[in-house]
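To make the argument concrete, we let one protein speak, a sequence paired with a row of structure tokens, as a model reads it:
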Amino acid sequence: MSLGHRLARHIQNATFDRVTGEGLANAEVNRGLIEQSVLTLASCRLGEGDSAIVVGAGASLHRRGILERLAASKYRGTIVVADAVLGGCLRNGVVPHVVVSVDPHPTRIVRWFGDPSLTEARDDHFQRHTTQLGDEYFERQEFDPAIAENEMKANRELVRLVDEHGPAIKLAVATSAAPTAVERCRAAGMALFWWNPMYDDYDSPTSITRRLQRSNRLPCLNGGGNVGTAAWVIAQAVLEKRTIGLIGMDFSYPPGRPYWKTQYGPDLKQMFGDRFEEAFIHIENPHVGETWFTDPAYYWFRDVFFEMVRRAGCRTFNCTEGGILFGNGVEVASIEDFVGTLSK
């Protein structure tokens, strides 16, 4: 068994330790803003029919022009997106019905919604400060070429777009979500629909999740450890969509991307030194004739997603033409075939 596969077996506990403290602290801050449950979304008018398209922030969106093709398709069903891809959607004329936000990080997540307080001076200070701390998050991971080309210009445009379209967008927001992001969405006019992340086994006598649910009476959802999977869960479990297309759900990185430009690359480098490249797992995608690579965390997220798909009462199609999410109950189709035939 490779180093990457061995590490993937231990990701669950590491993920729990990383997010629980911040998530619970944010739940206390957000408590006073809770007015309606995510279950209320089921009674809202969110597109036509019983299909949905779920959008993640993977590199395949831009490599294959998937968002432009989605906009051109005139899809009339429900669109549910991860917070990190909201800007890319709006710039391409795709206004989602639902945006999902989970991550508790205090400063990063608000930027997916356009940060009105971000200035050249503040961004320079932020980047220098975080670089000193070894946190080059946006530089390492940003797959969106608009942000990579000119982050400040892209932020100004995103502020405008979110302010313009915010009143038409529902935010399916976890109680763990960053309060800065929550306030930004409220200011933009989004309606908020709340839920609790599933931190641990609800049936355990010492369950943190059960204690949280009893305190705020909100439903608990297993988001699979990442916002993309959480968006799929909301589409199939809350909105009860029977046919779901995925785009930008890569769970991996494209061929040729440097290992350091990945979410966990610096952490793996620190842990394993010159051996850190061995921690990445390479998987051939026969549908596109390419080999993509992933890290232990996203390899574990992929396994979790496959298990959830097997138990779900819906058909799931990967329409993104890239990544490592295929087989094990995940069918493959083009976005055009999904919109034109499979979603009917």
